[in-house]
Amino acid sequence: MAGAGGGGAGAGAGAAMAMANHANAMGMPNAHQAPPQGSHIPGGSTALPPNAAALGADLVAKDQHALSQKQARNVAHLPLVAVDLYGSEPHVAMFPPKQSTNNGDGPTPPPQLVGKMKPDVYFKGNDEQAHKTLRKYLTKSKPYTALVQDALTVSDNKDAVCMERPQNWLGLRRASDAAKYLQKAFGTGDDSHAIAEEQSLEVGVTIDNSTLDGSEPLGDDFDRVVFKTRVHPKKKALAVLPEEGVEILVHQAQYHVSKKIKADKDDEEIMDYPCAISVPAWQCNDAAIESLMDAMGGSGVVFQRSICAAVGALRPGPQDKPNALLTAINDVRTTRMKEFQITKAKDPGAVMVDEVTLFFFGMAHDGVECTALQVGTLQPEKTDCLFGEIKVLSNVSYQAEDPAAVLEKCMTELRDNLNAASMADVELPPAIAVYGTKPQQSTIKEKFEALVKSGKLNEWKDIPVVTTTTDCVAMGTAVLGGVSHGRLRSIQQLSGKKPKAILAIRVANVAPVAVGVRINYHGDSKKGWLPVKTIFDFDRRVPAGPYTIDFRASECAVHRELGSDLSDEEFLKAAKANEGSKKIPKREEAARNLRVQILQKWSRDGDWKKVGDVKKALVVLNKDEEEIPVEHVALELSLAPSGIITAGLQGEG
Asked: What pTM does this model have?
């Protein structure tokens, strides 16, 4: 297929040479040094200079949740496992271990495709030994290898018990938080516990509201959705957390990679292989990503799926299969160069615009995402990451049982976002890249062409649609994983300074979720909650924060007594009147009754979801667990590209 996919598509020799010849005309804000005139994109990788090992020894992505420099170094000798976990046909790829020579780092090995895997977990049904081993695996008294031998089976086993796509349920506190179609398919809801108990004698899997320790749910942050898994009719159903199901899928991927490289290692080391997983934007929320990180272990990283698709689609392959996406980018740069040469003659200080806009429309098993981004900083010597800068402009995503049904909504909202005043000057892209399975790519292309024909997307009528290989997400995930673990890096040379190792791909992402705060000044009264205040909205540049919200007992007392409709002057006067020793009882009462709830909105048309329990922000506990009111606290909120929220309270008095 002559597409823009990772591994299976390539850049024509002419396009590659032209792109390289324009490298010196770039003007990115970070002022990375461009390759010399006449450089070209080679078919393989190029070795870094001898001192690169020292320059990049501690180079890892600083914004990746739960990954430290030490962790990256500790697994540098192991292959990195990359999984397109949410794809309809999940692909597994790998980034080989770092290679070393007597002079330092050896040539950077390219990522490799491993194959496909099932998105579900299959247990042997009507098997007493399978029940025993699964129970012991969940209590960590049996290893994964025992689970493979005694409990796991293949999908075509007629007695197989299927745990269907546990990744869709990651982090959910109650079944009613799941997408409507998932609730309908599994017969879930707030009464799902009773439903599960009624079906308890049947071999199979049901969804249940439970807790981390298996007790009855109390409506707090300790609650979790679980898979009640019964593999033998005479044995009690076992509660399997979604992250435990995903952990099994991750181990399966790790073993696929070990077979690919014919590893002669013990099982414990195989399960230490670091992992990188692509996650669609609609699944990038605090609870889901935190659970996914638990499933991957200490050296795992996550990336937004659209960015993985972009990185994978921009990898050149064999020269006999021109990469249509790279060719389209090259055409834009060729035109710009001609215009720039004319401008340069009149204005010696002129700088050529480097960024090229692209659209990526992708589909997965149960959702769609449409992303506009810009690529820049050509790196011709780096086959796996030709562009060092990726800047996301907007991302629109929706989870749906029928992804095709929300394609129009997704595309038109992206158009509307880009037409906003802040991005009105963004140029149209030379191509739209689609990713997913071949049928999904055809569906996206047909829907886009129908919308253009109907006039709903008339302004995009001249933009061609470019297909990608079905493995481009997995391959892009492997590349980004290699970057985050310091296995792929670039050398930045600034005038008058020593060379500096930098990440081979620098991504400026936007928020896949919205973050808000809701406040109640009247204790646990359900009627006292004020409207949600949005702190970080969709498409906000991330990482974002810290955003600080001050809470003062004197001001809370005003809100309790006089409400929130005062003018600024009236409010400050009333707050001042609540200061001093005589007003301590009043301030204490206000402090004890302040309630704060952090929330996230996972889709633009969705509801606000609770993140953690309600906080008593102006109360601290002493050593005897007694509540002590304080005068002032500052709540600091930050948001990571993956949707993870960091919250901290600092107080006084």
From this structure: 0.85
